[in-house]
Design a protein that fits this description.
disordered N terminus; alpha/beta; 18% strand; 602 residues; six-stranded mixed sheet; 49% helix; rod-shaped
Length: 602
């Protein structure tokens, strides 16, 4: 049994070791951190992923419990991602690093050594490129021209050139006609110059040479403005050079991880596949950013947080098709809303107009009902009055006959009975005219002397005119002639108009001198009869007073002007009333009668 004990002890130790190693591996896998490194995608997202993925694999293999992935993006996208805590590290130019360090606590771990230019750490600057066949030789020749750059926050793509212009006494805000910021990748900047869409392009250092190496352009087709080639450098540059890209970590990363990352970066050899793919000879300790700080100080550089509008414009530039679609949908929705609002207003106006028509119809219906009632009453009155008038006519005629039989008749009594007979006959004619009007009988037209009609009407109202001290004058213009009219109807109209003027003048102050003018005007085809007074005029719209049952008199029925209008229209004439001018006062009633009514069409 003794020889077996050591063997059993050894097997037990081996089993315990295996269990411990398995538990350690499981614990390590459970605690593995997934870390994202944001990199500036100056040549596009795909190229950035291909360039930096080997570097992420290199760090994942050398940092315990950490797995690194690349997150390419533009300046604005990286700023947003860092602020949201979506990335823990960032590889970018010192200009963006200084901008971010003013907003977020960052630790600068290392500065990249360029694979070109003998491994220098100063490899960021601007190159101003124009076409070789252009007339632009200096920066001054670009005044008032259209240029393009990658972005406003790009140190090599724009800011270095602005610093150069400030040293030369130029103001970039009004020096160029337009500055277009095309974003990443950088290739379109050169292509825009080649295609003559812009006059010049501000590109990062070595962009022109890298595109020539790729075979997409020819060096002889372009020229560099304000060119220089520092000793040991492989590319032309228009501005001074600034420190290369830096590797920085946010404060949420533990110090143990940053220490391991820093050691791994420093240990990267130039022949490592990760260094070759990233285009670097390795990493060195962070170098001074004094030149960048001085540049920003010279420019009075004050960075502001990226606004939501800038982010929207960046998204719109990257997703132009979706942006156009969204704009079209917005326009369609706007036009549809305006169309719906227009139709709604149209329907509303129609409803309002319909409501108004219904109200007018209701008023007309009420007036027609009143007219029907008045018609019935008027017909009854005319029937009843007709008999006394006929009796007066018969008595007056009988009295005249008896007086004439006498040998010496009383002439005064005979004249009085004759007047009574004339007025009774006129009253009978008026009654018959009213009955004809109520029953819509056809108007009988005859030759009427308007001058005699005016004289007879004024003589009937002579006593009332004298009682109110109203002066009346008549005026005739043109050569008088007979008109085709209804004599009784026209006399009824004229008396009603003169009576209205008398009533209006009688209500005015006692010191007011009332005047009525009856004017007759004759033309070749028409005759005008005007009744003009200097009374107070109508307080309401004169046209509305022609409607039935509209009156300004306390004891009026509102039928006078309506009857006048109907009588004139039946004689193929026109009836109008209006207020006189303010300095004249009063109103004017105008009757237009044709010399001969037009024959009705068959």
């Amino acid at each position: 049994m003794k020889p077996l004990l050591p063997l059993l002890f050894a097997l037990t130790l081996v089993s315990l070791c295996r269990i411990e190693c398995a538990l350690a591996r499981q614990s390590g896998e459970a605690e593995e951190q997934h870390l994202q490194v944001g990199v500036l995608a100056n040549w596009g997202y795909r190229q950035a992923e291909e360039r930096w993925k080997p570097m992420m694999d290199y760090l994942s293999a050398r940092v315990d419990g950490a797995h690194f992935t690349v997150r390419p993006g533009s300046f604005e996208e990286l700023n947003t991602a860092l602020g949201a805590g979506e990335i823990q590290f960032i590889v970018t130019n010192p200009g963006q690093y200084l901008f971010l360090s003013n907003q977020f606590p960052l630790s600068w771990l290392a500065t990249m050594r360029s694979r070109k230019h003998n491994g220098t750490t100063y490899a960021i600057g601007s190159t101003i490129i124009v076409r070789a066949d252009s007339d632009y030789r200096t920066l001054y020749d670009l005044k008032g021209k259209v240029i393009a750059a990658s972005g406003r926050h790009a140190l090599g793509g724009y800011q270095a050139t602005v610093g150069l212009m400030h040293k030369l006494g130029m103001n970039p805000d009004d020096f160029f006609d337009e500055v277009k910021f095309l974003g990443f990748p950088l290739g379109p900047l050169i292509f825009q110059v080649r295609d003559k869409n812009i006059d010049a392009a501000i590109t990062p250092f070595c962009t022109l040479e890298e595109m020539v190496e790729k075979g997409v352009i020819r060096m002889e087709d372009f020229r560099v403005i304000n060119p220089s080639r520092p000793p040991g450098y492989d590319c032309q540059v228009s501005t001074q050079l600034y420190p290369n890209w830096s590797f920085a970590a946010s404060e949420e990363v533990s110090s143990s991880v940053t220490k391991q990352i820093t050691g791994a970066l420093y240990a990267l050899t130039p022949d490592d596949p990760a260094a070759i793919q990233a285009g670097t000879l390795g990493w060195t300790a962070p170098i001074s950013q004094l030149k960048v700080i001085q540049l920003f100080s010279d420019l009075h550089y004050q960075e502001q947080e990226t606004s939501k509008w800038d982010l929207f414009l960046s998204w719109l530039e990257a997703n132009r098709k979706w942006g156009i679609l969204a704009g079209l949908l917005f326009l369609i929705a706007t036009f549809y809303h305006l169309w719906i609002e227009y139709k709604f207003r149209q329907k509303s106006d129609t409803l309002v107009e319909t409501e108004r028509q219904l109200k007018r119809k209701a008023v007309q219906l009420e007036r027609l009902h009143s007219a029907a009632v008045v018609g019935e009453i008027g017909a009854g009155l005319a029937h009843e009055i007709n008999q006394p008038i006929a009796a007066i006519t018969n008595y007056s005629e009988g009295g005249i006959v008896r007086l004439k039989r006498q040998t010496q008749p009383d002439t005064e009594m005979l004249a009085l009975l004759d007047k009574i007979n004339q007025q009774s006959e006129r009253a009978g004619a008026v009654v018959h005219r009213i009955r004809g009007l109520l029953k819509r009988r056809e108007t009988v037209l005859m030759n009427v002397n308007l001058l005699s009609l005016v004289d007879e009407s004024l003589s009937l109202l002579k006593l009332e005119l004298e009682r109110h001290h109203i002066d009346v004058r008549t005026q005739v213009k043109g050569e008088p002639y007979f008109v085709q009219a209804d004599k009784v109807g026209m006399q009824q109209v004229l008396i009603n108009l003169i009576k209205n003027s008398i009533d209006a003048l009688s209500e005015m102050e006692t010191d007011h001198h009332g005047q009525i003018e009856v004017r007759l005007e004759f033309s070749d085809d028409e005759a005008w009869l005007l009744v003009i007074d200097n009374g107070p005029g109508f307080a309401q719209d004169p046209d509305s007073m022609i409607a039935s049952f509209s009156t300004t008199k306390s004891d009026g029925l509102g039928l006078g002007l309506a009857i006048c209008s109907d009588l004139v229209k039946e004689q193929h004439g026109q009836f109008q009333i209006r207020n006189n001018e303010q300095h004249q006062g009063g109103c004017t009633a105008k009757i237009t009668l044709p010399r001969r009514p037009a024959e009705p069409k068959p």
